[in-house]
Each structure stands twice: as structure tokens, then as C-alpha cells.
Amino acid sequence: MNIIIALAVGFSSGALYALIGVGLTLMSVLTRVINFSLVAVGVFGAYLSIRSAPLIQSAPLEVQTAVTVVIAVVVAAVVSGILGWIEATWLSEATTTARSAVTVASLLMLISLSFILFGSQPQPLRPLLVGPAFLVGEVAITKVGIAMLVAAIIVGVLTWIIVRHTPIGVRLRAVSDRQTAAELLGVNVKALQVSVWMVMGGVMGLCVSIIGNTAAADATSMITLVIPGTAAALVGAFKNIPLTIVGGLVVGALQGALTAFPSTTQLRDWIPILVIVLFLLWNQRKEVWDVAR
Amino acid sequence: MSLKVTDVVVRRGVGPVISGVSLEVHPGSITTIVGPNGAGKTSLLESLSGIIPVASGSVELDGQEISKLSRRQRSLLGLKHVEQGRMIFPSLTVRENLKLTARAKADFDEAMSLFPELEKRVDSQTALLSGGEQQMVVLARTFAAKPRYIMIDEMSLGLAPVVFLRLIPVIQGIAESGVGVLLVEQFAHLALKAATDALVVTSGHVSYQGPARKLLGDEALLRDAYLG
Amino acid sequence: MSLASRPRPTTRPWLPLAFALGAIALGAIFGFGMPAYVVFVATSVLVAMVSLLGLGIVTGTAGMIALCQLSFASIGAWILEFLYLKTPLPTVFGAASFLVFMLIAGLITAVLGLVIGLPALRLRGVNLAVITLGVAAAVDTTVQQLGFPDQSFAHIPRPFGLTSDPTGDRGYFLFAVVVTVLIALAINALQGSRIGAAWKSVAFSERGTASAGTSVRTAKLSAFALSAFVGGIAGCLIVGQITQVNYLTFTPINSLGLYVLSIVVGSQLIDMALFGGILFVVIPEILKQFRVPLEWSSVAFGVLGIQALTSNSNLGTGVRAALFRRRRLREAARVEAAGDVAAVETVAEAPIPTGTGRPLLVVEHLTVEFGAVKALTDVSLVVEEGTILGLIGPNGAGKSTFVDAIGGFLPQHTGTASLDGEPLDGLAPHQRARAGLRRTFQQDRVPPSMTVGAYLRFVTRGKADPDAIADALHFFGCPDASIPLSVVDVGTRRLVEVAANLAARPKLLLLDEPAAGLSHDEHLAFANRLRRAPEHFGTTILIIEHDLDLVRSVCSRITVLNFGEVLATGDRTAVLSDPKVVSAYMGETEML
């Protein structure tokens, strides 16, 4: 199997990982946290949204779909916003470790609530885009994969535009540079940070609605999707968006390449860890001493 | 109408860092706080702007008690704190630093007019500027926020005296425009020349309070105040 | 004679052993007295407690996030089963096989912990969270697909021939009690040792740890490897309890739950690990009785976890703070009284040390730049052996930057520095400390979570005996070695830091504003003691100070920095009367 075929086989997953990685990177830069719950809020929102199906049975399919997607986005944004509010209110001066630890606790809660509310069977979450977009050799590039890649690029580009060229972006950068100095100038740090949490949550809700249960069949996907996302983000050192996208596609490609050797399928989940380890070693090759500690 | 501090005590950990501080800054005047390092001056300013809490005592801004308000609320009421160490936003350009507080073009131009030498650096990242230029950006940015009172912590830190001499007339101009200035300084003589009122803070308490001129003219008084 | 030198009763070393024996006795009574079902559940409690003890070291003591504790358990269980079912070793070890295999499993798991921790622990703690979450998921799917060696039909024999019926359950419970007690004893001993001090120090301040001669990475790795070892043991205990396991016993979600619970209770404390174990096992049991979905316990733990993190406390510290409040107040009062005695003590005035004339620290053309800001430019100086050099200058002149550079925290600097003829360049901070270069910090980097004595043993790397430690503490009028640092005020903690670094008998000690936070009288006492330090400890000192009276009274030579450059350097009186130096301070009335 050559590189192109491997990339094609792993494209859908890789593009999804790329989008998650972009989300994690943005949250790390703008709100100083590794948000382990990022995917979880999206999955939770999507699962809750399909519960509305009985209520809108009578409406045409497009309306049903639109309503479900809106509910998923709103629920994910609200849950994420609550988490962001907790962080901004009580942990605004805390270390990245403490702030990230909160997202581990919330990940635990979201998985558990998911099992309680929705059971452990695979969820009837229809993917919004089905089927191949085009073929590479004999391998189909799915529409979902294209959508995820496009979403990752759009989120990256939009964020870049907002952060570089709008007043809100200037404030966001100021807050991530020096939070106290920004507060002393009257910048509404809490509102800005909660907004970032809400927007990211909403994006995840939309994303999970699109991929449906092709990748997010049950609550454990909250963990199994965020891990390759962190691998992608590490390729970009939690700073560089284009590299993060590339990193996600590479993780997907490596997993895709494994499918050529059926006996190695159990190694699939070790690919992200391999990438994580490699890039941890690479990123920290020069010793840097944190001034604060 | 004043920034009125009454019997403020600030704690860091178990013991008080500074106590028994009462002062009043009127719009249009400059009050300076001088004293040896470690005496508690920075902690005092931090308690007034809300970075750390006031353990006891009251802080009133134009008659309103602010000691329980958040940093942002105090800032929006018109109290601006220029922290020690030139707190520019390093990844932002000079223009962007100013745009944070200068909403209208007129405000931006007015702030830039304080330091014409920043003109040619207006689109440079502030991380690349010299120490003096960074301090100018901080002051211009604070002025553009149209404050009622400004507290400045050791503006001269790490800067050559000649830079300080460049900055002091700007501070005096800001005061003349109706802003009340509280100036903490290590270069006592230069600060005392510019100020109307002065406090000397030593080892966590105020050892002298009164007209700056009096302190300036009396070296023995100044030395006793430092060692007392 | 000051309080610091009076011999104190050592803190009852037989106490942990007594507790251990008492626990085993209680365990025996419980195991053979309670109903079978209760004993079975209690065994699970012990397993959870052991897992939490392991986690507590990493999360509580060393302050990191570790999310794969049950993966270590599953690996340990797998190795145990493999050794039993796929090797001829059971015939070699007979009845003791279980114990031997458990130890082997623990050790192999510890090695795996080292391998996982190595890339993650170089400096940023949150990377460990990323990698351990990945490991948790990957081990889960691997074990799902691979299956355990028992293949769901073989049963692993219990240790020492215990049967698999309810009677055997009771015997096994006692076995689990003994194992848990032994692990708790070992962890308790480690927490009080230098390794434990290294863990606590690294959680509080990485710079402080490195300056004390301990590698930050080694400290973090040892904590993580030990937690992996204990995790592996826990997995073996589960196999012994239920004799057959599958992947459902070790899910990643339960690893998350254990982590969150560890934060909530503060499981680095032995009693809190037991409490956490009870919560982890008993709450789901209660929910089962009321037919409530078991996941609600995880939700509850999540909420408690968020609460603990936002209030920056946990049950363990809260309970202890309440219980020991009176004792803390008494200890704090004792510290204050000792301080007064120490200050009043009159010691004979010592002369300013003159030294041997041999250059000890040679710095040449040191330059440090942060972007466009030149913090230090072409700074060269020499410190003579046996003397005290004063480094002074206005605020912002670069003095602390100088000490940071010499200490090894600014590897990007240009220029050279050598200590006693050996170049320092290229050495990491902890290596410089071991080479004989010690420093204190302007900010408080003394971890409050240990006693004065434990801190000194940590900083001296175990090379100073109790007499030397008591001597160093007495020399500076510091509190007694048994006093916890949490009741000592910031100014006195600084003195303890100085005393500790001198007790390490370094070749060169860099002091960064050691007297800040001391009263005027305490300044004088400090100056007097400092003058005697070079001879008493065989050390050379470089001191940064703002208090020029202090500088004038201890230093033979002074270097003045201004805007990152050397303004003047030389004999004390000459430098202090140099008009350039006076005008540099310009208005700093201490000069007058």
C-alpha cells in the first residue's frame, strides 16, 4: 500500500482528528486549557438531539434534520459554556494542569450521564452526509471526510481572521498574553473565554451531528476521538493550525495503512500514542524553564 | 471627588505586608509614594486595583466604595493600574495595544501624540521594542482609556534616568488634564520634584506623609523617614 | 541555648509499625467475623485503596494528572496470569507462586510506567494526562482483543493454597490486608524520605527542586514508576479475588473515576486512600441495592472533583486542618517564641571574611537578551574563595537575571562561567548544584508541605547528619527541625532556605535578597551570622541585596550593576564612595 492509498483509506478519520486537533489547539492558546471534554460535549449534544425525533416526526425530513442539528449545537454550546464559566470564575489564575483536570472530571461526568440517559447500545445517530465523494484508485473518499477537512480548514482560517483582524481578536490575544493586564484595562476576560468555550462546543456539536454513528456510536467515542485529536494537536505543538491538520491526516493515514495487515488491527489504537510520544520528545528537545515555577 | 484610601491593611499569607495607610488623591494632582524595596508599595497598589484583596480598611473612588468590586469593575469606574515591569501585550503591535483602549480614531491620535517617537514603530510587535518604548506604549494605552485616576508602579524600573525625564512631563500633562495620579517610584528625588503630595513607606507602614516639597528640601527628614 | 539546638524527641518511629500490626489484627477479626458478602466487598475496597495509594503519589504528592491507573492493574493482572498459565514457573515456586509473580508483575509494570513517563515528564505536567489517557484507551482495546491468558475458563489459584469458596475468601481478605498494609508502610516511609521530599518539592516549584540538586525529571519519573508498580500489584490482587478477569474489570472510565476520586479525597494520605476505596466500591453497591444506575456514582465523583479543584483543597487536607488546628497554633507560637530568643541572643561580632585570594567563580562576558531587551551586557566578575561579594544596583539592573544565568536557568546566554576551574556551561541547574553551586530565590520556593528537617535533608541530599542539620538551623536562629514549614512565616522560611543551602556545604552560594521580610533587628543578626558563614561552612558567598547597610557590613568587595552592565567593581569602600555609583542610584536615599 503506498502513501496515497493509505491517506485515502484513513482520510475520513484523519480529517475528523484534524478538526478535533484544531479545536484543542485553539482552546489551549486562547483559554490555557487542554480540554479533554471537547468531543464529549459535542457527542452529548448530538445524542440529546436525537431524543427530539419523536416530537418532530410529522415535519419534513429537512426540517427534522435542521432541528436536530440546531439542538445538538445549542446543547453542546451550553454545556461547554457552563464548563467555561466554572473555569473562568474559580480557576482563572490556576495552572494549566488544574484547569485541564477539571475537564477530566467533566469528561467522566459526561460519559456517565450519557450511559444513564441513553444506555450503552449504539445510538441511532444518522450521519448527515453519506457515501463517497470520489475515488482514489479503488478507495472511496467519503463526503463526511471532505466535510470534516473543510470544517477544520474553515475553523482555522476564520479564527485566524478574527484573531488577527478584529477588535475581539485583539482582545483575545491580549488576554492570552497577559490576563491580569487585560483585566486591569477593563477587558471582559470572563465573557471572552466563555464565548470561546461555547463556540468550540457548538462546533463539536455540529461536527458530531454530521459524522453520526460512523465514528460516534456510543459514549466511549468521547475518549476514543479526543485522543487522536491530542496527537494531531501535539504535531502542531498546540500552536500551529496547519501542522495540526496535517498531523490529524497523518494519524488517520497511519491507521489506514495498518488495514493492509489484518493481523495488526489491534495496534490501531497505539498509533496516536506513537505520534504523541514522538512529538513530545521533539517539542521538548530544548529545555525551557517556566518563569512562574 | 477623589481616590480615598482609609486605614488600609494588606496581607500576604499570615502577616500584614502594609498597614495603616490613609491617603487621598485629587484629580489633577500627583501623589508620590517612595521608600525602600520590599516595603509594601506594590502590594498597596495591587490591593487598590483588586489584584489582591484589602484585608481591612476602605477604598473609595469618587465617593463609591470599591474594595469589594472586581478588577474589571474598578477599571471601568475609572481607576487604572500601570503595573511594574512594562506590561505590554508582547504579541500585539503598538497600534493593537492602543486600540484595546482607544475606541475612536480621535482618542488613538491623541494617545499617540503623547509620544511622537512611537509613530515610526506603530505597526511593530511590542515584544521587539526597547524598554523605554514599551513603557511609552503602556502609558499611552492607559491614557487612551480616559481614566479618572492612574496608579503607576515604578515606571523607571530598568530604564535610564534620561528616559524617566522624558516620561515625567507626560505624567504631569496627564495630571493637568484632570487625572489624579498616584506614582510609586524608586528614584525618590525625581518623583518628589514632580509631585504635590508624598508618602514614605518603610517596612510596611507610612513613616512620612505630607507635601512633597517639604521632603525634598530636607535630606535629614528623608533619611529619617527611610530608616524610621 | 536556643530552642533550635535542644534535642527533640524523634517522632515515634514505632508508630507506623504499631498501626500496621493493629490494622492486620483488625483485618483478621473483620475477615473472620463479618458475613461472607461483606468480606468480599471489603476485599474490593482494599484493591481500590491500593490503586488510590499508587495514584496518590503521582497526583497528590507530585501534582500531576495520571489517567491510566487501571491499565497498570490490567497489565499486572495479565502478567500474573501469563506466569501462572503459560510458564512452568508455578512448579518452581509452589505455594509462594502468587506472591513471587505479583512482585514480578509489579516490577514489569513499573518499567512500563518508566517508558510511558519518559517522554511526557520532561517539564510540562499536563502532557502526562494526554499520554496516559491514550494508554488507557489503547490498553483497553488491546486487552479486549487479546483476552486474558485465562481465556474465561481457567481459574488462577489463590496464594498459599487458599480455596475459592467463601472460607477461602476470608483467608484471601487477610492476605489482601497484609499486602495493603505493607504497601502503605512502604509508601509512608518513602513520603517521609528524601524521595518524598523531592516529589513534594517538584509539585511546588520545579526551579526550587533543580537548585537543590535534584533532577526534576527523575523526581517525576520515580513518582510515576512507583504508581505503576502499585497499580500492577492492585491488578494481581483483583485476579486473586475473582480468579478470572476480563477487560470490563479495567475500563478507562474507571481509571478516570479513580483519578477524580484521588483528587477529591487526597489519596496520598493513607487514611484518605482507605476512605476513597470505600467510596469507590460501597457507593455503587448501595446504588445497586436501590436499583439506581451505577453511573450516578461517577457523576457524583465528577461533581466532587470539580468542587475540590475549584476550591483548591481536598477532604484529606480539610480534615487534617480541622483536627490539627490547635496543634498548628501551638507550633506557630513556639516558632515565634524561638524567633524572639534567637534575635536577642548576642553573638560575638565577627570580622568581615577576607578569603584566600584564589578566584572561585569566574564569569566572562556574560550577555543575556530577551528579544530586544538586553538584560545583561558583557558582565564579567570574579568571586574570591572564602569571601562575600555584594552584587548591588537599582531595581531592574539585572541582578536576579545574573543569578538565574549562573544557576543554569538561562541556557541561551553567551559568555562563560566557571566554578573552581571547571566550566559550568552546558550543565543543567541540578548538575550545577551537585557541582557545588547553590542558590536561594527571591520568591518563596520552599515547599510548605514538609517539616524543616525534611527540607534540610532534601536540600543537603542526605549528606548532612542530624547534628550538622541542627547546627545549621541554630546558626541562623531557625525553627527546630520537627516544625512543619506551613506554620513558618515567609521571612523565616527564607532563613531556612539559606541555612539549608549552607548545610549542603557548597563551594559557592548565591543569595538573592535573603533578608527581605526581616525586621531591622533581624537584619543585624543576619548580617552577623553571615559574616561567620564562610569560615563555619567552608563556603564562598555572593549576595544580592537592597539593604546597603547589610551589604556594607558583610562584603569585602562589591560589584555594581546598572542597566545590565557592570558599573563598578572592587573594594567595598571605594565602590560605595564612587560618584558614578552614587549618581546611578540617583535619589535612592539609602546611599546618603
Describe this structure in words.
Chain A has helices spanning 3-9, 11-31, 38-50, 61-90, 96-118, 143-165, 167-177, 179-184, 189-211, 221-235, 241-258, 270-283; strands at 132-136, 139-142. Chain A is mainly alpha-helical. Chain A has a two-stranded antiparallel ribbon with strand order 1-2. In chain A, strand 1 and strand 2 (139-142) form a beta hairpin. Chain B has a 6-stranded mixed sheet with strand order 6-7-8-3-9-10, with helices on both faces. Chain B has a 4-stranded antiparallel sheet with strand order 2-1-4-5. Chain B has helices at residues 41-49, 71-76, 94-99, 105-114, 131-144, 161-176, 188-194, 212-217, 219-227, and strands at residues 3-11, 16-25, 30-34, 56-61, 64-65, 79-82, 149-153, 180-185, 197-202, 205-211. Chain C is α/β, with parallel strands linked by helices. A 6-stranded mixed sheet of chain C has the order 6-7-8-3-9-10, sandwiched between helices. Chains A and C meet through helix 4, helix 5, helix 10 and helix 12 of A and helix 6, helix 11 and helix 13 of C.
Strand order of the largest sheet of chain A: 1-2
The helix content of chain C is 55-70%
Largest sheet of chain C: 6 strands, mixed
Tell me the overall shape of chain C. elongated
Question: Do you know the CATH architecture of chain A?
Answer: Orthogonal Bundle
Tell me the series of helices and strands of chain A, N- to C-terminal.
HHHHHEEHHHHHHH
